[in-house]
Write a structure and sequence with these properties.
By secondary structure, the chain is of the alpha+beta class. A hairpin with a 4-residue loop joins strand 6 and strand 7. The structure holds zinc ion (ZN). Zinc ion (ZN) binds next to loops. Zinc ion binds next to loops.
């Protein structure tokens, strides 16, 4: 490398200064003079997560490893699995106390919420293809798009014992108080959160409205356009069929209607799951410490 800086020095310069990192665990394959692309990417992931880490981590808490991927939910796989990565991008930070999940955009910039799994709740970590499965006493986290070698490495870092109890926790995006539920307000700081039930009802009324309420405006717009297209399709099938055949023409358009109704229902379920996946602040408080600006959609 020109200038003679070692790989270690280069990576150390990339890491955020305000976060304590256990260097040998973070970069297990570091060699004297070369930095692997993936090592550099992980250092950048940490740097982008710094605003959240600075606020969320305890004073003595040390970061051991970081990777990223998309959280997958069982309902998401059935209803809109392929769309999920747009809204569930997550930076996965292993510390000496917990697994911290930071919801991000596609460029790994922190977004709406954060979750955690205290290490004493990790029951088992397994991996298949690009999936990591982290089982707790109560539920399993599916994590998609993780580098295969990193899943294997994580399994080595995390102890597995079948007896552990408890599941994932949501963190208040304002004060980082942990809760096992999705409350409507934070017990510690009083921050108010968007309610999964309200999100689900909006999506039932019209697909996309619940996502818009939660703050996923681009994704919501796609859903609204998709559902509007299907309703328009229903009308363009229905009207000529009824004109030609009278009431029995309704039967011809019925399959489209059934499909649209199913879409409303499944989007409501999906939106509820999305709302429950983290605490979405009503006043726009973000884990990074910023206040969310409501984007204008032209
Ligand atoms: Zn709080």
């Amino acid at each position: 490398m020109p200038g003679g800086a070692s790989g270690e020095e280069e990576l150390k310069a990339l890491l955020p200064a305000s976060v304590a990192v256990r260097f040998d665990e973070m970069f297990p394959s570091i060699r004297a003079r070369s930095v692997r692309r993936r090592d550099r990417q992980r250092a950048e992931m940490l740097r982008k997560a710094e605003p959240v880490l600075r606020r969320a981590l305890g004073p003595l808490e040390v970061v051991r490893f970081v990777t990223n991927g998309a959280r997958q939910f069982a309902w998401g796989l059935i209803t809109a699995g392929s769309m999920n990565p747009f809204t569930n991008r997550t930076t996965f930070v292993l510390t000496d106390k917990r697994i911290l999940l930071i919801h991000t955009d596609s460029k790994q910039r922190p977004r709406f919420f954060a979750n955690q799994l205290p290490l004493e709740r990790v029951r088992r970590v397994t991996g298949r293809h690009s999936y990591a499965f982290i089982r707790t006493g109560r539920e399993q986290l599916m994590f998609h798009g993780v580098k295969r070698g990193e899943v294997k490495y994580l399994r080595g870092l995390l102890e597995s014992t079948p007896a552990k109890e408890g599941g994932w926790q949501n963190l208040c995006p304002r004060c980082f108080a942990a809760t096992d539920d999705t409350p409507s307000a934070c017990e510690r700081c009083g921050a108010k959160f968007k309610e999964p039930r309200k999100a689900a009802l909006r999506s039932l009324l019209f697909p996309g409205l619940g996502d818009f309420y939660l703050g996923y405006h681009g994704y919501a717009l796609l859903e609204i356009l998709g559902a509007a297209f299907l309703w328009a399709l229903f009308v363009t099938v229905l009207v000529p069929a009824v004109r030609a055949r009278g009431f029995s023409g309704v039967l011809i358009a019925l399959p489209v209607l059934v499909f649209v109704v199913l879409l409303h229902g499944s989007d409501a379920i999906l939106t509820r799951a999305k709302a429950r996946s983290g605490l979405h602040s009503i006043d726009g408080a973000l884990p990074s410490g910023d206040i969310e600006q409501t984007p204008t959609i032209s």
